[in-house]
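Quick illustration, no need to memorize.
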Amino acid sequence: MASAGLTLVDWKRTCEDALHRLRADVLASLWKVRPAFARVTAAGPSVRRPAVRRLLALGDVHGDLASLRKCLSLANVINENGEWIGGDAVVVQVGDVFDRGDAERAVLHFLDTLDRQARERGGAVYRLLGNHEVMNVDLDFRYVTPGGFAEFRRRDWELAGRALEKAYRELPPVLRQRVKALPREQRARAMALAPGCPTARLLAERGQLVLIIGDTLFVHGGLRPDHVAYGLERLNAETRAWMERRAAAAWSTRLPMNPRKATIPRITESVPRVGVARFGSTAAAAAAADVSSKPEFLKGSRSPVWMRTYSAPHLRSDSDACRELEETLRRAGVRRMVVGHTPQVVINGACRGRVWRVDTGMSAAYGGACEVLEISETHGIRIFTDHGVVRGERRLLP
């Protein structure tokens, strides 16, 4: 019987929250006594990190360095010179640094510089891979601005001409033909971003598809139960292998697939149309033999970088989407998910706070507000805005 004042639903939710916290505490203990748990291997950094005192998340940047700096200033982690003052705080940028803006390389450099500064003080700055990073490594430049192409044609790239020529000769024939078919002004960008090329390797080395810190899971678009069944480490490893143009580890290709249907809102950018088998199939395994071939799980509107299921504007707590989310979180052993990808008017939570949507369209391309989500031991969940700090419960959908 539930305690006085608590409904059975409240009691169940309280027990689930306690279980999530216990799992996070166990993982944090493992981290302390087993440093190898966090090792960086050929497959990249581990998906899971221990809980931290202060955790911050911000949405899609889209090549707008000024807006990024403004948001980080609001959260009191950088000073007026753009230097780290956040101590041991951890920041997660949820992907889509690329496209729609002119300062993509500058944003990457700024985030990586901040990460080095933060780590000297016990903090960190992580950046995830979004659909626009995936599109660019796949040489899909539909949303690149003229300034974005120019950024890759400046003098530092001209001086690297011989190295780029060598890299071009080493491309697989299919990729070489794709680069050659591009307009001349786009080729420098292609030679930086094609699988195995310098910027693609940088994205693979320092970016992740999925990241868990404590009891919070971060992903650009969203995750489904079958993604968890496929393996979160595997998702990261195979994405990294594709971006670095090398063979992935020999994983099993069998995967249970039974996704629930959910309403996806009308959007203004299109998912690349491809004729592919669903990921985990025999056809997908055959396609993986070509190391320059994009993994199947990165394709389509239900992939981790493209899905919008948990970002619908009026997502009801009793919806199929929220039930799917609960199952995904249960399988992953976490309490909540943080996503970007779909612009919101403000940062908000849905499905009783199990998902937080942090893409506010901060870049000049969208003209949205700068906001940053904070999850902390001291203050719980709150949002930094231009007008002050807002408690998380005030931003929960009914």
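The radius of gyration is 21 Å.
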